[in-house]
UniProtKB/TrEMBL annotation:
InterPro entries: Aldolase_TIM, LAM_C_dom, Lys_aminomutase/Glu_NH3_mut, rSAM, rSAM_sf. It comes from the Bacteria. This is Lysine-2 3-aminomutase/glutamate 2 3-aminomutase. It comes from Desulfoluna butyratoxydans. It holds the Pfam family Radical_SAM. GO terms for molecular function: 4 iron, 4 sulfur cluster binding; isomerase activity; metal ion binding. Keywords: 4Fe-4S, Iron, Iron-sulfur, Isomerase, Metal-binding, Pyridoxal phosphate, S-adenosyl-L-methionine. Its cofactor is pyridoxal 5'-phosphate; [4Fe-4S] cluster. Belongs to the radical SAM superfamily. KamA family. [4Fe-4S] cluster binds at C102, C106, C109. Residues 88-302 form the Radical SAM core domain. The modification N6-(pyridoxal phosphate)lysine is found at K314.
Length: 344
């Protein structure tokens, strides 16, 4: 199946899901009525049993409706939004939403207030307004093209957006944020790559959360993307029951670097309404990161970040390494857990 057939054959209703998986429909229908579901046949085949890491990311769960103290937009993306679908918070870079569809609706999505919904959707007019804002704002050096998933647009549309952005002299970097290499790898076609190869300012950030997402199809997609010349990165979300064990995360980082994808961030789960059941403690996050540094190539170690509520931005967290200090030395914990003295 090509990527469009895959999308067309996606499971989007509780009834269809019951037909293929024999799962109870009432609960899933209730959740999917609030936060859309889409599970395409590629991902469906990778899910093995209820509660496994791929299942948890894709199948609606009653917990999504029971974490009401959390907010829909704790990071206040809307507050820093000069035009619809564009967030300008940091001095030199913007987030630019060009699609609100995805190949799979991740249950942990931090933008689940928006993705897959018709109301408040991205349109040609909102894309045009975003492009005009970027053209008129010389402070913007770096444009994060995201959504939804930008690579669900047609090749010609992607080409047109990249052409406009590339032509803006003050835009030095364009990043595409996409999950299709893991959720719909057949979307990475030769034709799409021919489009992407034309743009020298382009970087591509993917989103993988578990080693089992590295199928032969996904690895082929990454090989094709690597040939476009765009540096590849990955943003992973720390998710309870998916990748919150140090060995799992280390395995994921090894898979990424083996496929020449540089791990960029591990995001601590934001306090977004509908995703509370995926959040771990900070201690769990620090333990996971502790299992990476020193044990793996430095290129396989991303920054572990929390995003401050209210729009404060991202801050990296590191396991404590300085145990004590005096005038002459630091007492430092090494990756092997032993204590060392570092002379000052
Ligand atoms: C994460 C984020 C960015 C990009 O930040 P980098 O650290 O440069 O990747 C830009 N704008 C907003 C609002 C963000 O949340
Ligand atoms: S692909 Fe990204 S934007 Fe789409 S549902 Fe998943 S996390 Fe959200």
């Amino acid at each position: 199946m090509n990527w469009k057939e895959m999308l067309d054959k996606s499971v989007v209703s509780a009834k269809e899901l019951a037909d293929v998986l024999g799962e109870k429909t009432d609960e899933i229908a209730r959740v999917a009525g609030v936060y859309p579901m889409r599970i395409n046949p590629y991902w469906l085949k990778l899910m093995k049993k209820p509660g496994d890491p791929l299942w948890r990311q894709a199948v609606p769960c009653a917990d999504e409706l029971s974490d009401s103290p959390l907010l829909e937009d704790p990071l206040c993306e809307e507050k820093d939004s000069p035009v619809f679908g564009l967030t300008h918070r940091y001095p030199d870079r913007v987030i630019f939403l060009v699609s609100n569809r995805c190949a799979l609706y991740c249950r942990h999505c931090m933008r689940k207030r928006k993705v897959g919904k018709h109301q408040g959707a991205v349109t040609d007019a909102t894309i045009e307004a975003g492009l005009a804002y970027i053209e008129q704002t010389p402070a913007v050096r770096d444009v994060i093209v995201t959504g939804g998933d930008p690579l669900l647009l047609e090749d010609a549309k992607i080409d047109a957006i990249l052409k406009r952005l590339s032509a803006i002299p003050h835009v030095e970097m364009i990043r595409i944020h996409t999950r299709v290499p893991s959720t719909l790898p057949m979307r990475i076609t030769e034709g799409l790559c021919a489009v992407l190869s034309q743009y020298e300012k382009l970087w591509i950030n993917t989103h993988f959360n578990h080693p089992a997402e590295f199928t032969p199809e996904a690895e082929k997609a990454l090989r094709l993307l690597n040939r476009t010349g765009a540096p590849l990165g990955c943003q992973t979300v720390l998710l309870k029951g998916v990748n919150d064990a140090p060995e799992t995360m280390a395995g994921l980082m090894r898979k990424l670097t083996k496929n020449r994808v540089r791990p960029y961030y591990i995001h601590h789960g934001d306090a977004v309404k509908g995703t509370g059941h995926f959040r771990t403690s900070i201690e769990t996050g620090l333990a996971v990161v502790n299992g990476l540094r020193g044990h793996l190539s430095g290129l396989a170690v991303p920054a572990y970040v929390i995003d401050l509520p209210g729009g404060g931005g991202k801050v990296p967290l590191l396991p404590e390494s300085i145990l004590a200090r005096d005038d002459k030395s630091l007492t430092v914990k090494g990756y092997d857990g032993k204590t060392y003295t570092y002379p000052l």
